[in-house]
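ok trying again, last paste got cut off:
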Amino acid sequence: MALAWVGFKAPGRAASALLVALQLCGCSVAIPLPGLSDKASDEDVTGSIAKPVSPLSRRLDEEDWRRAKAALATALDPQGSGAPVSWDNPASKAKGSIAPVALPYPVDGRVCRAFVAKIDTSKGHEDMQGAACRISGDDWDVNNVKPWTR
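nice, full thing came through this time. structure:
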């Protein structure tokens, strides 16, 4: 690589200037600032939208979801009757029912099933549809939940 010595009266000055420039190129320091990273962590608090307790509805509290989840496991059981299963929480006055709407089907070695859910809380009524896949025993991974369109 040939250096042009234009504007310098002596090669020593050009070499000194080049040496200083090269040294300054490596003088950057990364200072981590909270909230400015590319990756969010569980520790980051934004104060925006709280994570829902239930994948079925944002209106359910923890106890509502525990009761609805038990009804979901019973309703979606491939060995079950296929009838709707009701649940209620006397403390919150929330209640609902879950009904399978199709036969079980396999996905990646797991048993899955579509369902509709009716939910009544102090905040209103919701009809939801979705699918769930059995993780193990009575545990189901609920996904694709959205308002039920008749």
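cool. Residues 62-147 form one domain. The helical segments are 11-25, 62-76.
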